[in-house]
Every structure is written in structure tokens, then in C-alpha cells.
Amino acid sequence: MLFEPRFMKYREECNQEKQSIRTVEEWIRFRNKWYDSKGWPKKSSEQITNETEFKRRLTSGKLGGRSWAYSYLMHDLTPEAIYELFYTSYHVGFKLTNPELYYSKKEAGPEVYWEQDCPFCGISTREIGDEDCPVCARSMIYVILEVER
Ligand SMILES: [Zn+2]
């Protein structure tokens, strides 16, 4: 049976709280209450192998004219839950904790790289472009990375 974290099970209550978040402190309180990963099941090595194989094939060619990398979460949450978790963390949490970066132009700079991620599909690209995922059409989020030296 698929595991359903509390933030999905009590989605309405969670969404109401989410909409009232105005400060970093409120965000941290929300995150600790709803996104605490203690008790979330971990994926088996077989699940990870299958998922990796699927994504390796998915990202082997270009998608929407761009090159992609893939990743996975070690916790066994549904793609819907993972999307909700990362989408909120970016559009509520990151926006409050890093407003300058959140509103900045997303491009490859001298010290940082932006990546576009689809948490639902678990794929990402450094070729910044169309904001919709070429696989599932969900709105992707931005993730900032430091440039490797
Ligand atoms: Zn997607």
C-alpha cells in the first residue's frame, strides 16, 4: 500500500495553514509540523534500481530540446506528495528565506547555477527555458547550485 504523509492526508488543513504563512518563523513552524520526515518509509534497493533504470531511459535523449539529469528521493512518497513538498518549499519557504534569489533572473552566473527541476518526475536541467515539465507538464521549480570548481 502506498504511504500517504500527513500533509497529503490532511491536505485541506495543511493548505489553510500554508496560505496564512507570512514570516520565516511561520514557515519553519509549518515545515516542522508538516514536513517532518521521521516515520516516512524508505525505498527498497529494488525500488531504487527500477526507478533509476526508468529515469536513465527517460533522460537518455533530449526532452523538449534540452538535456536532463535525474534524481530520486530516498523516502517512498508518491510523486504527487514529492511535488507538493518541493513546490511548497520553493514557492513558500525559499521565497521567504531568500527573496532576492527567488525574484532574481534565473541564469548561469559566475558563482551559481540555476537548475529547473520537476519534483514529480525527478528530473532536472541546467538549460533554463520553458517552465513546464516536458514529461508531465507541471510547473517546474528552480533550484540553485554552486558551481563546481
Ligand atoms: Zn514532470
Q: How would you characterize the overall build of this protein?
A:
The protein is of the alpha+beta class. The protein has one domain. The protein is 42% helix and 12% strand. It has helices at 6-9, 11-19, 24-34, 45-58, 79-97, 99-103, and strands spanning 69-70, 112-118, 123-125, 141-146. A four-stranded antiparallel beta sheet has the order 1-3-2-4. A hairpin with a 4-residue loop joins strand 2 (112-118) and strand 3. Helix 3 (24-34) packs antiparallel against helix 5. The radius of gyration is 16 Å and the shape is globular. 17% of the residues are buried. The model has no long low-confidence stretch (mean pLDDT 93). Zinc ion (ZN) is lined by residues 118, 120-121, 133, 135-136, 138. Zinc ion (ZN) binds at residues 118, 120-121, 133, 135-136, 138.
Compact overview of the structure:
This protein is an alpha+beta fold. It has helices at 6-9, 11-19, 24-34, 45-58, 79-97, 99-103; strands at residues 69-70, 112-118, 123-125, 141-146.
SSE arrangement:
Elements: H1 6-9, H2 11-19, H3 24-34, H4 45-58, E1 69-70, H5 79-97, H6 99-103, E2 112-118, E3 123-125, E4 141-146
Helix pairs in contact: 3-5
The protein binds zinc ion (ZN).
Zinc ion (ZN) binds at residues 118, 120-121, 133, 135-136, 138.
Placed side by side, the strands forming the largest sheet appear as: 1-3-2-4
Number of domains: 1
Provide the list of bound ligands, each named once. zinc ion
Low-confidence stretches: none
Number of helices: 6
Q: Globular, elongated, flat, extended or rod-shaped: what is the shape?
A: globular
Task: Please tally the β strands and state the result.
Answer: 4
Derived structural class: alpha+beta
Rg, please? 16 Å
